[in-house]
Fold this sequence. Notes:
65% of the residues lie in helices and 13% in strands. The protein is an alpha+beta fold. It has a single domain (6-108), classed as Cell division protein ZapA protomer, N-terminal domain (Double Stranded RNA Binding Domain, 2-Layer Sandwich).
Amino acid sequence: xxxxxxxxxxxxxxxxxxxxxxxxxxxxxxxxxxxxxxxxxxxxxxxxxxxxxxxxxxxxxxxxxxxxxxxxxxxxxxxxxxxxxxxxxxxxxxxxxxxxxxxxxxxxx
Length: 109
């Protein structure tokens, strides 16, 4: 009893994407796109990552990390949000430093 797919247009980082989804999933898709757009804009505004592909990869890595952390913590009781945030910030800083090193190596070749 699958519903017929409908086209939904979402805007992420100033680009429009047309995605087919079930009508019952439309609101969730729109909310997800808004959230992703917000996260990608935060990364772009930091000025540490340049290029939409890299911004998308960093956003995906951040979201995947958060999802895995939440899954890991299920059933383990309350988790200190500040510790999670500090750990995430540290991983992001390390990833950005590695990207800067790679960029620097690529420029000198």
